């Protein structure tokens, strides 16, 4: 897929303890509408299949619905929205967003219970709102993909989070490794688990999705950390995103991530996945190191649906 991706706002109605954008500590938004409009106009008519909107929380912009109208008027085929779904808990609002062209909702689900998710978001009621938002969007016939970021506070619930998301009607579940930047960097030791600690739970969550014939996607994990489930890691060769992030344009999101956010160790050169694996987030490597990572020397057998 060839898509545009736009960071619409720095601010959010939640204050997640691992927010990569650092929204909990941002007092004033830096995103100007004219910059967003210029980016959309400059790239219109260039065969982009979708516009992906994210933040912060994109839906809290006062002109969010107007931006959806602008995207439609410029001829972009569809819109993807990354959201905490809190405002979508209102059916009238959810219906308006769908009618204005959003066909895929990527909803953050970081807990299987209100206690966990509200504790991560530091926003009481956010779990119940997200659940209702998903139900509303599914009822309206749009596609829902959930995204769960693995952190210290939720990794033991990952299998239950997958079950919940699928029970709510998600078309795909995405499990993301924690990107140790922004608020996650501020709170590094409080939110960042070791890969060897989370691995059994990540693999069990993947097994549950596969057993239920669900669509599964993983993002940000080094290949050696998810043995048997490597084929579910996002293929950035097939997904080309041109990103507007604040004042900076990334011509290719994956190239930017490889160049600036992730690193590899000498041992990675002996891994059969070296050419496709992005490595480990640099802050993780600097603080925790490489002892738990081992090169894969033979192509593995695809994981079965047997529980890990």
Automatic annotation (TrEMBL):
<dbReference type="Pfam" id="PF04055">
    <property type="entry name" value="Radical_SAM"/>
</dbReference>
<dbReference type="GO" id="GO:0003824">
    <property type="term" value="F:catalytic activity"/>
</dbReference>
<dbReference type="GO" id="GO:0046872">
    <property type="term" value="F:metal ion binding"/>
</dbReference>
<keyword id="KW-0949">S-adenosyl-L-methionine</keyword>
<dbReference type="InterPro" id="IPR058240">
    <property type="entry name" value="rSAM_sf"/>
</dbReference>
<dbReference type="InterPro" id="IPR050377">
    <property type="entry name" value="Radical_SAM_PqqE_MftC-like"/>
</dbReference>
<feature type="domain" description="Radical SAM core">
    <location>
        <begin position="1"/>
        <end position="222"/>
    </location>
</feature>
<dbReference type="GO" id="GO:0051536">
    <property type="term" value="F:iron-sulfur cluster binding"/>
</dbReference>
<dbReference type="InterPro" id="IPR007197">
    <property type="entry name" value="rSAM"/>
</dbReference>
<keyword id="KW-0411">Iron-sulfur</keyword>
<keyword id="KW-0408">Iron</keyword>
<dbReference type="InterPro" id="IPR006638">
    <property type="entry name" value="Elp3/MiaA/NifB-like_rSAM"/>
</dbReference>
<dbReference type="InterPro" id="IPR013785">
    <property type="entry name" value="Aldolase_TIM"/>
</dbReference>
<protein>
    <submittedName>
        <fullName>MoaA/NifB/PqqE/SkfB family radical SAM enzyme</fullName>
    </submittedName>
</protein>
<keyword id="KW-0479">Metal-binding</keyword>
